[in-house]
Amino acid sequence: MYAVFIFLGIVLILIFYIIGVYNSLVKLRNQVKNAWSQIDVQLKRRHDLIPNLIKTVKGYMKHERGTLDSVTNARAQAMGAQTMGEKSAAEGLLSGALGKLQIAVEAYPDLKANQNFLSLQEELSSTENKISFSRQNYNDQVLFFNNKTEMFPSNIIAGMFNFKEEEFFEIEDQTEKKVPKVDFA
Question: What's the pTM value of the predicted model, to 2 decimals?
């Protein structure tokens, strides 16, 4: 008789443990999704600023068509990226194109003094910093989630309920790991 109660107690403890681990995995997965949405907001803001920047710069930089086209193409590629790997690569290309634009702007002192340009430059710089912070937060959340899905015994429950490892948001090229400096002054 006592053996039945002990067995039922062990089963209940096991059920509550499974529920607890499952709920913690759901919570971590949702934190990863939230962290990604924060990056996505900043990337959209960045993508929205670029056409205004190009429009402002275009009037001054008549001989820099290739640079402007590379920024525009990189933006389009970044906006069309679907997977985390594609987004990482495309955003790295966009950062590189913006860096080349910065170098080209150095030859145009009138542009560097334009108030609209200075305002856009400040907004873009602020957005780049927010993207960097958001990417760090996202990668931290992915690390927590991936650890939970890979460590014993929670990995058993993660496997039972099909929790899959999340991908980090990394910039591929070592030269692109720095936040592009967009201070044109």
Answer: 0.78
